[in-house]
From TrEMBL:
This is D-glycerate dehydrogenase. InterPro entries: D-isomer_2-hydroxyacid_DH (IPR050223), D-isomer_2_OHA_DH_cat_dom (IPR006139), D-isomer_DH_NAD-bd (IPR006140), NAD(P)-bd_dom_sf (IPR036291). Its EC number is 1.1.1.-. The lineage of its organism: Bacteria, Bacillati, Bacillota, Bacilli, Bacillales. SUPFAM superfamilies: Formate/glycerate dehydrogenase catalytic domain-like, NAD(P)-binding Rossmann-fold domains. It comes from the Bacteria.
Length: 321
């Protein structure tokens, strides 16, 4: 019997679709990852596995899964998976591009506005009973309209972010591993070097995936190059940032603020140093978390499993390019 392992609880309507052609073993928790030991155990006779970012796919994982044909990752990013090794073992890997682009850009935009206008801090101000009167510079923040925004990573999400900025009449520059001529033409975004992006932006937005080239890209030197009134937003991956360096930059005023949806180690604990800083807005990795988008991501993952197990090409394969 064909077996599909699902490492996180998903709604019954998706499980039913998988059950039409396979036996389904699903971890029954939505907010707690499947323990590694159990994951490896269940992989022994699995033909497909439907995983989240919490599951690391490395040599140990693939060694434990001799029958595996497809890994479907419930995310567009796939830094949790050793892609060359999966390819070497003949295991197809799929992700969830496109369906989450707009929702993730929207969250990034929310985070930028919230950080710029000090929304979390302002609400806390009322809750703490500090609001006594209107004041000319009370919780005064930074305008997004007319600002200079530097986007690091001009993929689908970077472009969706730039499109939104048009309505704010912002001047958008970007840095990417390669130039995106269509985005330049359609969105009027300007390609600049990484240093130029850091030195000139009011807002630096990281939408980049985690790769050997982007790992630790935002370090002490990078934050030092940024303007002291600049705000850093990260909706890509946490490990693009050296977190201690970011904390130091925020504490010492090298930059004005940060809005973060991703962290090096997730989840972060309530006593994480970033949570002590009033100029940091932190979210629990909810970039693509709208109900409709999560539905679409799950459906796409189910469709990928079904296609591959029924001998068809995957819909959204990830390759080691
Ligand atoms: C992704 O898709 O890579 C997100 O970070 C998870 O929603």
């Amino acid at each position: 019997m064909t077996k599909v392992l699902v490492t996180r609880k998903v709604p019954d309507r998706y499980v039913e679709q998988l059950k039409e052609f396979a036996e389904v073993k699903m971890w029954d928790e939505e907010f707690v990852p499947m323990p590694r030991k159990e994951f490896l155990e269940e992989l022994k006779d699995a033909d497909a596995c439907f995983i989240t970012l919490s599951e690391k796919v490395n040599e140990e994982t693939l060694d434990a899964a001799p029958k595996l044909k497809i890994i479907t990752n419930l995310a567009v990013g796939y830094d949790n998976i050793d892609i060359p090794l999966a390819e070497e073992r003949g295991v197809t890997v799929t992700n969830t591009p496109e369906v989450l682009t707009e929702t993730t850009a929207e969250l990034g935009f929310t985070l930028m506005l919230a950080t710029a206008r000090r929304i979390v801090e302002a609400e806390q101000y009322i809750r703490d009973g500090k609001w006594k009167s209107w004041g000319p510079y009370l919780l005064a923040g930074k305008d997004v309209h007319g600002s200079k925004v530097g986007i690091f990573g001009m993929g689908d999400i970077g472009r969706a972010f730039a499109r939104r900025l048009k309505g704010f009449e912002a001047n958008v520059m970007y840095h990417n591993r390669s130039r995106h001529r269509i985005a330049e033409k359609e969105l009027g975004v300007l390609y600049v070097s990484f240093d130029e992006l850091l030195e000139n932006s009011d807002f630096v937005i990281c939408t980049a995936p985690l790769t050997p080239e982007t790992k630790d890209k935002f370090d002490r030197a990078a934050f030092k190059k940024m303007r002291s009134d600049a705000i850093f937003i990260n909706i890509g991956r946490g490990a693009t940032v050296v977190e201690e360096d970011l904390i130091q930059a925020l504490e010492e005023g090298d930059i004005a603020g940060a809005g973060l949806d991703v962290f090096r180690e997730e989840p972060i604990a309530p006593d994480h140093p970033l949570l002590k800083l009033s100029n940091a807005v932190v979210l629990p990795h909810i970039g693509s978390a709208s109900v409709v988008t999560r539905d679409r991501m799950i459906q796409l993952s189910v469709n990928n499993v079904k296609a591959v197990l029924q001998g068809h090409p995957p819909i959204t394969p990830v390759t080691d390019k």
